[in-house]
Amino acid sequence: MLNENQNWHQATIEEMRYIQLNILKTVSDFCKTNNITFFLMYGTLLGAVRHKGFIPWDDDVDICMMRSDFEKFIKTFNVKQKRFVVKSRMIDQSFPYYFAKICDPETSLQEIVDEKVFDVGINIDLFPMDSVPSDRKQQKKMWKEIMRIRRKIVFLTIDKKKSRVWYKRCIIVLANKLYAKNSAAHLYRKLEEIVMKYCYLPSDSVIEVMTPYGINSILKKSFFDYAILVQFEGISMPIPSGYEVILTRLYGNYMVPPSNEEKISHHSYKAFVKDDVGEK
Known about the structure:
This protein is α+β, with helices and mostly antiparallel strands and 280 residues long. 37% of the residues lie in helices and 21% in strands.
């Protein structure tokens, strides 16, 4: 949170990455000490494999854990170390995301969700991997229920101030009126109920519920049987043993970089750091 008695400046991408890498190293050390398994995921996994570090035009870090390790991490991380803080609905039901964030409280990064401002600080995202039924029909049924809730969340959490063509603005206004009785927190509780309803059925597969890649990102649990260590910005970090299948499923021919037009960050937030960042 910004403090007027201290000197702050808008963080450069290099300063953000410096802090994110420190968070990631702390998480890695903590997980080793406490017998918790995590993996690089999404663009961070792709960056590790293709670039041996951050994707040059990206500005975030994604990791994942199986649900049991996720819950163990959430319950113990803030107790056993004090430099960074994990934020999650398991700790605070008003937290506006289904996944967790591991944050630097000495920085400021504001995100607007449900027309409310949350200062989470510079952070990395931590996604739980939840079991889904082995049966394909059950998988489709579960995904349909998830997407019914997620569509409502999109309209509640979308940046309403962003410039759009008139018909998109109309859709957003109408959807917000339609879903006015819901809150993001309420809808995330509904998602949790769906996951709990299916998690005890026979399962050989998992999914990250907020995945942007659809039902095809349902993955075999065996892809996460063990970790392979790879270099990420000069540090050994774990990736799933089935990373090749995962990356192909999510990105296609993942070793071929996108066109210059596609080399953009998908985030619009601004982060702020104290003037002495990087001196510690």
